[in-house]
Amino acid sequence: ILNVEQSPQSLHVQEGDSTNFTCSFPSSNFYALHWYRWETAKSPEALFVMTLNGDEKKKGRISATLNTKEGYSYLYIKGSQPEDSATYLCASPSDSSYKLIFGSGTRLLVRP
Amino acid sequence: GAVVSQHPSWVICKSGTSVKIECRSLDFQATTMFWYRQFPKQSLMLMATSNEGSKATYEQGVEKDKFLINHASLTLSTLTVTSAHPEDSSFYICSALTPSNTGELFFGEGSRLTVL
């Protein structure tokens, strides 16, 4: 069974701080790595879908990198804002289907 | 962007009754939808894959007779928790695979089920 792990479990930062968190996954039989943002009382929202080793994607102040050989992805948030407060989930399919296995998430709280 | 709507958001029912949760793709056709369950402080656990026009495929350990899934149209999948018991109390959330073939999912808002 594919095991996707995220760290830290939670993170409190001050507005304006930059932050990053980690997603680890098995490096063998890699298909894709997804990042989602899940704000309270809303639906999880897709941030990135990454497939290539060394890939880096960016959306505004948020970016992500992927290392498939060592089995990790980093999500970076530059200049955190209170509206960035959410749970950030990563997920990966265990096979060539689109069934995603999710990590337990990193809960980010940005204090004004 | 693609929108997935899930209903109801909250449901409280008596033990032994059945509860139906609906998941609709509002502006696209979803041949494949996924149902997840989340226990407190745990990750989203995949329960089953819902395929339009065919039987759902369930993950290991998920009782198909307890969690009935029907995907009768390209925009609607339903999850029915039959003969619910307190241990079925949980957060259930659906997602739909977009037609873009990236594997990206669009999620509903989730449903909180409490069985008394």
Care to describe what's here?
The complex is a heterodimer of chains A (about 110) and B (about 120). Chain A is an all-beta fold. Chain A has no helices and eleven strands. In chain A, strands 2, 4, 5, 9, 10 and 11 form a six-stranded mixed sheet that branches. Chain A has a five-stranded antiparallel sheet with strand order 1-3-8-7-6, with no helix packed on it. Chain A is globular, with a radius of gyration of 13 Å. The termini of chain A are far apart. The mean pLDDT of chain A is about 95. Chain B is an all-beta fold and about 120 residues long. Chain B contains no helices and eleven strands. In chain B, the strands form two sheets. In chain B, strands 2, 4, 5, 6, 9, 10 and 11 form a seven-stranded mixed sheet that branches. A four-stranded antiparallel sheet of chain B has the order 1-3-8-7, with no helix packed on it. In chain B, strand 5 and strand 6 form a beta hairpin. The interface of A and B includes residues 45 and 97 of A.
Topology:
The complex is a heterodimer of chains A (112) and B (116).
Chain A: E1 5-7, E2 10-14, E3 19-24, E4 33-38, E5 45-50, E6 56-59, E7 62-67, E8 72-77, E9 86-93, E10 100-102, E11 106-111
Parallel strand pairs in A: 2-11
Antiparallel strand pairs in A: 1-3, 3-8, 4-5, 4-9, 6-7, 7-8, 9-10, 9-11
Chain B: E1 4-7, E2 10-13, E3 19-25, E4 32-38, E5 44-51, E6 57-58, E7 67-73, E8 76-81, E9 90-97, E10 105-107, E11 111-115
Parallel strand pairs in B: 2-11
Antiparallel strand pairs in B: 1-3, 3-8, 4-5, 4-9, 5-6, 7-8, 9-10, 9-11
| Rg calculated over all Cα atoms of chain A | 13 Å
Oligomer: heterodimer
Question: Alpha-carbon distance between the termini of chain A?
Answer: 40 Å
SS-derived structural category of chain A: mainly beta
Q: What is the N-to-C order of secondary-structure elements of chain B (H for helix, E for strand)?
A: EEEEEEEEEEE
**From the alpha-carbon coordinates, what is the Rg of chain B to the nearest angstrom?**
13 Å
Helix- and strand-based class of chain B?
Answer: mainly beta
Query: What is the beta-strand fraction of chain A?
Result: over 45%
